[in-house]
Amino acid sequence: MNILYCCPFDTSIPTGKNRATRHKIEALKEIGDNVTIVVPGTIGKRFSRLFTGIMCELRCFLTILIKNKKIDYYISRGDVGLFSVPLAKLLGILTMREIHCGPFEELTLLEKPKLVKMYLKLIFYYSFIVNKMSDVRIYNNPMLKEHFVKEGWGNENDIVSYNGGSPDAVVSISKKLAIKKYLLDANVKYLVFVGSTSKWRGVDLLIDLQREFNKNNDNIKIICAGGKVTREMDPDALVINFAPLDDIGCAELIKCADACLLPVADNRVSPGSPLKLYDYMINGRPIVGQQKMPGYSDEIKRYGVGITVDFYNPLEARKLIVDFIEGSEALEICSKNAEKSFDNYNWVSRVKDWFIYGSQSA
Predict the structure, then answer these.
(1) pTM (2 decimals)?
(2) What b-and-e string marks burial along 293-319, b requiring 16 or more CB atoms within 10 Å of the CB?
């Protein structure tokens, strides 16, 4: 299996899509016979997104021309593909396209100057055209696939693939030492959320949840790690916020948790696939996720690693969470279930599915 994979952004950055894409590349190299990766070089990282995309596209185009008989699959995402995807199709190469959000919807949620938004809109149109022309699309959530198929932009044979777990998310520090390191109280129950605090993460829902804990004098504190919780979002500073914090710091705070949180705002076509879900699992922590939400509740249920609640109903969510974390066996059961299921949710397993279903779909 010969693969060409193109990603027009820096995968060495340790957070979010950059880290997830790096894991995918590592998995592709493990399962492919001959894998060619095109990512921005050292020089490309110093220039604009537009320049970087053009350079990546040129490299892909030339690679396809030179190696076309040695490429079975061309996988791309983002700001590349307008010329390289048609060329690959013309030469009989199966083209696959990663799609992570609905077209243009995030523009309304981004706090950017109007000129920047106009530029991003052009980039999104570019990406959207490539999404449609590719043979197979790989969505990160079934809700996103449903939307694309309904609008006539995709087809039923397209693939849905969640994120995966990676051993590099594991830290060896014990809960006791982690609590001591971050100056936390060993007598308090901690619920930890790691990740960005962007508008589609639903962090504001955690503020309301902490307010309910406080009203009922529960000995429970919510920690948000990684992203900055602004005064506007949490005017009374109800949650504990560690930011900025790198991957290692976030993993260490996960170790402090009696349970980890997965809220999500209902403001996008797709709620995405939370990388932190698998970080929680691989670190052996029980999870409290948003109910009736693909990519969240279905994975928690599938692997038996926690409970689901409606974060939009903090009063009811509080009751369910208190009962859950008071159960002394919850941590042990969820930890064992996550460990024994790793072969099913690791990155190699996820990426293998692309080719199992992709070949059938084209």
Answers:
(1) 0.90
(2) bbbbbebbeebebbbbbebebbeebbe
